[in-house]
Write a structure and sequence with these properties.
single chain, alpha/beta, Rossmann fold, seven-stranded mixed sheet, two-stranded antiparallel sheet, 11 helices, globular
Length: 256
């Protein structure tokens, strides 16, 4: 699939990938910060998200292949690939299936292991919004509020609402994601030892990367490094953008 993307900055190519229910717009601020450090940041919408096409398939093999196609179509030479959450797992699968593509991978607050489904409540809330009869964004918000009390999560989801043919629609492919939500938690361990340089960056308040399992990660990715952003939860780029930028640049400087 040909992904929609935009480029911010000039320099060595860096592909930046968002998480589930997100889109490239969510990472614009962080992309600009990376661009100021001398990167041409390719800010992409993954399939079934943002402005990219909807498709029945939604799993890591096809998403990694989409990113590989973007890299090849734009003649990017050994880009850095940075991904948050689901985007981090896409980056890991890219490293596994297309190890010749990335020069290095930075994975933000996700790990290669399997995660049980934990988005069911959000999916059920989204599915409860009948967009065939909803006439205003406020109506959709009122329905979602019945199940989602966290203001940040609510606003994050509502950013995906837009007008299409005089009707409200979701930018993400809700039906495909709902049908394949178990795929989002699938493990992305390599089939054999992967020696690409990889950095896993966790938020100290998040439980997505278990420090006690670093040895397990190193057994599969022996060149992996780890960093922690103090005071950050899962949304590291939104909560601590400067600290995350410092961690990314510090790691990449060790590779040069």
């Amino acid at each position: 699939m040909e992904l929609k993307f935009r480029v911010i900055g000039e320099g060595h190519p860096l592909v930046l990938l968002h998480g589930l229910f997100g889109m490239s717009d969510n990472l614009t601020l962080f992309a600009k910060m990376l661009a100021e450090k001398g990167f041409a940041v390719y800010l992409a919408d993954l399939r079934n998200h943002g402005h990219s096409s909807h498709d029945a398939l939604h799993n890591y093999p096809v998403m990694a292949a989409d990113v590989a196609q973007l890299v090849r179509a734009n003649n990017l030479n050994r880009p850095i690939v940075v991904g948050h959450s689901m985007g981090g797992k896409v980056a890991l699968r890219l490293a596994n299936d297309f190890p010749e593509i990335p020069a290095a991978v930075v994975v933000i607050d996700i790990a290669p292991y399997h995660y049980p489904v934990h988005h069911r409540e959000i999916l059920d809330a989204l599915l409860s919004v009948d967009l065939t009869t909803t006439k205003a964004r406020s109506e959709a918000e009122a329905v979602l509020k019945q199940s989602i009390q966290d203001y940040g999560t609510l606003q994050f989801l509502l950013k995906n609402l837009y007008w299409k043919d005089e009707k409200l629609a979701w930018r993400f492919n809700l039906q495909a994601i709902d049908a394949q939500i178990e795929e989002i938690g699938e493990a992305t361990w390599p089939g054999s030892v992967n020696e690409l340089p990889i950095c896993f960056i966790r938020g100290s308040k998040s439980k997505y990367i278990d420090p006690s399992r670093e040895g397990e990660i190193l057994a599969h990715f022996p060149n992996a490094k780890f960093a922690t952003i103090e005071g950050a939860g899962h949304w590291v780029h939104a909560e601590k953008p400067q600290e995350l930028l410092t961690a990314v640049i510090t790691y990449l400087d060790t590779l040069s």
